[in-house]
Amino acid sequence: MSSRIPQDFIDRVIERTDIVDLIDQRVKLKVSGRNYSACCPFHQERTPSFTVSREKQFYYCFGCGASGNAISFLMEYEHQAFIDALRQLATNLGMELPRGEAGEARRQESSPLYAAMEAASLFYRQQLRQHPQRTRAVDYLKQRGLSGDIARDYGLGYAPPGWDHLARQDWSPELKQALIDCGLILPRKSGPGYYDAMRDRIIFPIRDARGRCIALGGRVLNKDDKPKYLNSPESEIFHKGRELYGLYEARQHGKLKRVLVVEGYMDVIALAQYDLRLAVATLGTATSSTHVERLLRQSDELIFCFDGDEAGRRAAWKALQACLSLLQDGKRIAFMFLAQGEDPDSLVRKTGAAGFAQAMEQAQGLADFLFAHQSADLQLQRLEDKAQLAQRMGSLIAQIPASVYRQLIEQRLQEITGIAATAALPAPPAPVADTPQKPRFLRPARRPAASASTALCDKALRLLMLDPQLANKLHPPELDACQLEHWPLLRDVLAMLRRHPHMSTASLLGAWHGSSEGEDLAALAAQEFLLTPSMAAGEIDDIDRALKLADCEYRLKQLTEAIQEQPSRERLQQQLQLRHEIENLRRQRGASH
Q1: Following DSSP, what letter does each residue of 477-543 receive, concatenated?
Q2: pLDDT reported for residue 190
Q3: Which of 454, 433, 439, 258 has the alpha carbon at shortest distance from 361?
């Protein structure tokens, strides 16, 4: 956006707009300490969880995670395009959009890949209505019990059989290139021309948090064809490890009291057909902590639905492991195992919506599944097996954040084994580049606490959200090799602030609005509502040193391994220099504490 309209113009509009007055004209706000609150306009709730900060020109809902600045509020609340929301705010301030920029911004508001995905999705929806062979697809959908309304709500389409229905359309050169970049049309391996990636499949648009089509999924009509499900490849706008099919559609029906994670697109849609609009599906990947974190922002209850066979239980166990570091009081996570040969689609047809809802009520709680899985091969009347259970549970309990829920799990372990839970916990890890002593921000850690260094980038981002001007005190090395979590996002935020050193928190959030990274930044920025930063400049200095220390320790580890394989004088000198640098950084950090 900022490449079409000067970023400083956008920043001036945001800074001169009083977000409290803007929102209060549409949603009645009440004073709440330094901020303002109301029941969230983006989901149904009885207790206000929507908070607005006049100081930061920023809103955040602790219930559904909705967040942003004045521009994003108009975009979401009044369903305006970015350029229209910006123009409305500018007009209210007596400002005009830079000449020649407005039309171009409207045409190029988003990446060309969004336009390509929307064009392809529309093309396939048209094929479902018009193609001579559409009867095969329509009959299949009817046989699965789907109505026209559900097909419309989920934007279902049809990729006809044949090699180049999409590729041979009269696309503009830019749009055709975007379709290639999205992986929807592919160059022929021999000879000129292109062919379609999706052929003879039902098409399922995959939408992001703003409802934009970011990818397409396809399911075969012929059961012998492989693969059964096919997603368009990852791209600039699509990262399957973060996205969930059906989440946008489910959120259109208000606050999600519970979310059901299923395995396939058709399961999501079949449940919606029975007015159970609460299901989402991962996109061919195992459930990750990123998925779990996003869903726990949307709902207080999360149920995973798997086959009851061995493969289903293995998948459930992986999902449970992704949940451990995110467990918190007030949230329920459970596991629903289906009978042999059953799936959500077949079960809801057999039992109806009421029967399926009852089956969800009987889902096995996380703690019950945890203990059952870990003791399945043990005979707990034996002392040796009790000791083994305590040993197995220790490392798992260590990943759970301190909470009443963790205390209850520890209590149950002690009741079963007679061993105090603290005795079963593993020894604390040796100090690493950063061992946080201060409370982390509200959102639980994505990964087990043993990897304390992964908190570094989150801590840095939190401080930058509180005060973007701190960017001039943070000069980390290139840390891609260290694989610190959130480093790519921290790197991009710093690059943005280097280009626009006077950006406010609201402007910075606007640059990532509508993306999963934007959700992460908003959750960090929301801490301003609950925490008052103290000695932020000193803390950012310490984080800067800690990031450099992490980089040095990683390079020392790599160098030591290389020396073991092939020692040399040059490598030994480099090793000595790194050790001196590490000692200096540790000494500086110790002095600052």
Answers
A1: ---GGGT-TTHHHHHHHHHHHHHSTT--HHHHHHHTTTSHHHHHHHHHHGGGGT----SHHHHHHHH
A2: 83
A3: 258
Residue with tokens 């519970």: 258
CB atoms within 10 A of CB 136: 16
Instruction: Return the beta strands (E) in 64-133 as ranges.
Output: 67-68
Q: Is the pLDDT of residue 228 over 90?
A: no
| Tokens standing for residue 491 | 């790197």
Cα gap 389→371, rounded to integer Å? 9
Domains parsed from the chain with CATH numbers: 7-107 (3.90.580.10), 112-231 (3.90.980.10), 247-370 (3.40.1360.10), 377-424 (1.20.50), 452-592 (1.10.860.10)
Tokens at 80, concatenated: 């305006």
Residue 104 above 80 pLDDT? no
pLDDT at 154: 95
Burial of 195 (0-12, 13-18, 19+ CB in 10 A): middle
Q: Return the axis-axis angle of helices 70-77 and 7-16, rounded to nearest 10°.
A: 80
pLDDT at 100: 53
Q: Please check whether residue 455 is in contact with residue 434, taking contact to mean a CB–CB distance below 8 angstroms.
A: yes
Strands in 279-358 per DSSP E: 279-281, 301-307, 332-338
Element housing 249 (H / E): helix 247-251
The DSSP letter of residue 454 is: G
Polymer length in residues for the chain? 593
SS3 467: coil
Round to whole Å and give the CA distance between 161 and 358. 41
Q: Are 540 and 566 in contact (CB under 8 A)?
A: no
Residue 285 structure tokens = 């990947």
pLDDT digits (tens, 9 = 90+) for 506-559: 777 777 766 777 777 777 777 655 444 455 666 777 788 888 888 888 888 888
Q: Give residues with Cβ within 8 angstroms of 540, minimum separation 6.
A: 460, 463, 470, 473, 474
CA–CA separation, 422 and 414 (whole Å): 10
How confident is the model over 274-304, as pLDDT tens digits?
Answer: 999 999 999 888 898 889 988 887 888 999 9
Does the pLDDT at position 478 exceed 90? no
First to last CA, the chain: 42
Identify the pLDDT of residue 536: 60
Total Cβ atoms within 10 A of residue 108: 15
Is residue 227 packed enough to be buried (19+ CB in 10 Å), middle (13-18) or exposed (0-12)?
exposed
Mean of pLDDT over the chain: 83
Whole-prediction pTM: 0.60
Percent of the chain residues topping a pLDDT of 70: 87
pLDDT reading at 217 higher than 90:
yes
Inter-helix orientation angle 82-92/70-77, to 10°: 120
Q: In degrees, to the nearest 5, what angle opens at C-alpha 38 toward C-alphas 22 and 15?
A: 30
- Pairing mode, if any, of strands 194-196 and 185-187? antiparallel
Q: How confident is the model at residue 130 (pLDDT cuts 50, 70, 90)?
A: very high
Task: Answer for the pair 280, 319: CB distance below 8 angstroms, yes or no.
Answer: no
